[in-house]
Amino acid sequence: MRAPLRGTEIFFDIDGPGWVPDGAALRQRPVAFAIHGGPGGDHSGFKPGYGGLTRAMQVVYFDHRGQGRSGRGDPTRWTLDEAVEDMEALRQYLGCGPIVSIGTSYGGMVALAHAARYPAAVSHLIAVVTASHGGFIPRAQQILAERGSPAQQALCAKVWEGGFESEAELKDYFRVMGPLYAVRHDPAAAEAGIARTIHSPEALNLAFKPDGFLRRFDLRPELSRITAPTLVLAGARDWICPPEFAEEIHRLIPGSRLVVIENASHSLRVDAPERLIAEIIAFTEGN
Q1: Side-chain-side CA neighbours of residue 184 (13 Å)
Q2: Strand-pair partners of 230
């Protein structure tokens, strides 16, 4: 499905019922937005892993503008700030009240900014393996120098330079980097996910190049504006958004809860899938 919003089309998909039988009545369940990472990816990496959330909520998946199945339009608008406005416009387009906002990696950055700028629009915020400012990039470069193989370091140079020239190159990046993204990396399972994902190298280049917007963004001054109960999830072995950035977010959002999952890296959906779903459901049902 596609929503005509703000000069483009935003692709979205919905999983799980919004209303369920409850005795003699129908009960409305929470609506969650699953916000994908990248930039340069799409929502498909959440499927089927986030299907477990439908035990407790209806899940809306969508692709950021310029990526996945959404419209391309003006590349100068493929930014974090525009993604925030698109997300809020989609919420209103779908007629949702306050949502459970589940943002992962770059999607977590979008979710943090959205919750700070539209606090009444968010009932619960779940920030998964993310950071609140561009300092995560030089820190990731340090960790890569310590842990990465020569092949991984060479491919990551394309990230820092904004130098990917094709979707095939970006797919190869994820093949080579898989063992850093997930402690429990399974090449066969990872290949299936890579094959079904629409990778958009132009969007990634725009974000990470030397003057890219992810180099400059800083949400720390805004985080105190977040009023929704907030759960911050991190992987203890995460190389690109290491747990120190989750700890910082936790300190800056009053009353937030921090969970660092041991023996997990950036892909909690691979390394700790049952724990991830359980933590999200328990938090939303208990707050």
Answers
A1: 12
A2: 125
Give dist(CA 240, CA 142) in Å, integer. Answer: 10
pLDDT digits (tens, 9 = 90+) for 13-72: 999 999 999 999 999 999 999 999 999 999 999 999 999 999 999 999 999 999 999 999
Q: How far is it, in rounded angstroms, from Cα 206 to Cα 118?
A: 26
For residue 48, say if its preceding peptide bond is cis, omega within 30 degrees of 0. Answer: yes
Which pTM was predicted? 0.97
Report pLDDT for 86. 98
Tell me the C-alpha distance between 35 and 102, whole Å. 6
The answer to whether 157 and 210 are in contact (CB under 8 A) is no
Q: What is the dihedral of CA 110, 267, 282, 246, to 10 degrees?
A: -60
What are the structure tokens assigned to 190, written together? Answer: 């990872």
Residues 32 and 53: their CA atoms lie apart, in Å, by 9
Compute the radius of gyration of the chain from its Cα atoms. Answer: 18
d(CA 257, CA 119): 18
Q: Which of 3.90.1170.50, 3.40.50.1820, 3.30.1380.10, 3.90.10.10 would CATH assign to domain 2-134+218-286? A: 3.40.50.1820
**Interatomic CA distance for residues 199 and 18, integer angstroms:** 30
